[in-house]
Design goal:
- By secondary structure, the chain is mainly alpha-helical.
- It has helices at 3-21, 26-43, 50-67, 78-111, 116-147, 155-163, 171-174, 179-205, 208-272, 274-282.
- The longest helix has 65 residues, at 208-272.
């Protein structure tokens, strides 16, 4: 894994997002940074690490927005909060995945199995991580709506303003959480994890063990189809032979019956002197 390439790709998106954040709204800036990350990661041919690159992009952008004083205030509210929250959650997923991959790789090397175990784990864990991240975005959305932190102003913030206490309200009480921005930021990071899952599955298909298993499955299916065809042909041939034998037996039986009738008729004629009576009648 190219750690330098992953780090540089993530930070390049951060620089672009900060520059755009000076002249446009935060969601446009985040989108521009994400597109930059996507393009550079693809050019560096490290598509299997989109999740790690996206994590670095989110955490670095969230930190710099908090530190840099001349960033617009709106960027320091919902965007900065959820860049950090989702970045930390993504980092937990990526680090867990990498740790288990390293352990599986070490075990597989000792057993002489190569990297097949870790490749399978990368594909499965990437899909699971993507689903967990998507579920967290949806769950967080409904939880924020339920707690009343979403909206332009909360009742608590209005009450404190009316009372006139000399207290600087936190922006989350004074402004409220922008649910649309939160869902969008989460969806972009889910997109990075989805790309990783896609490329991990493609890489798994190139694994020698998976290819051998696929070839064996194809051979088994081909053998089963050939046996099925052979059984069908044998059954059909036996059915035709049985039908032919039955017809032949019926024909022979008919001939035997006809012969028996002819013999019986001749015997009866001889016993009754039918031929002599007929001859006398004719004469």
């Amino acid at each position: 894994m190219s750690y330098k390439g992953i780090l540089s790709s993530g930070l390049s998106g951060t620089v672009v997002a900060l520059i755009l954040g000076m002249v446009t709204v935060p969601l446009v800036a985040i989108t521009g940074g994400a597109m930059t990350v996507f393009i550079i990661t693809r050019r560096k041919n490290i598509q299997r690490h989109y999740d790690a690159v996206g994590t670095i992009y989110y955490l670095s952008l969230g930190l710099l927005v908090f530190v840099i004083p001349f960033i617009p205030t709106v960027f320091k509210q919902t965007p900065q909060l959820f860049l950090t929250v989702f970045g930390l959650f993504s980092a937990a997923i990526v680090l867990t995945k990498r740790t288990i991959t390293y352990l599986l790789g070490a075990i597989a090397s000792r057993l002489g199995r190569g990297d097949s175990a870790s490749s399978f784990w990368n594909a499965v864990s990437s899909i699971i991580g993507t689903l967990l991240l998507a579920w967290s975005v949806i769950k967080l959305k409904y939880r924020l709506i339920k707690t009343g932190l979403a909206g332009v102003a909360t009742p608590l913030g209005l009450i404190l303003n009316i009372v006139g206490r000399l207290v600087e309200l936190p922006w989350v009480l004074n402004v409220g959480v922008d649910i649309t921005a939160m869902v969008f930021i989460g969806a972009v990071l889910v997109g990075f994890h989805t790309l990783t899952s896609w490329y991990e599955v493609l890489a798994l298909r190139q694994d020698p063990l998976v290819q051998a298993f696929t070839e064996r499955s194809k051979d088994t299916a081909s053998t089963a189809a050939a046996k099925s065809k052979s059984v069908a042909e044998t059954a059909s041939k036996r059915s035709r032979d049985a039908t032919s034998k039955t017809a032949q037996k019926a024909s022979d039986r008919g001939e035997d019956i006809a012969k028996s009738d002819m013999i019986g008729a001749g015997v009866m004629s001889h016993l009754l002197d039918i031929d002599e009576v007929e001859n006398r009648t004719v004469s």
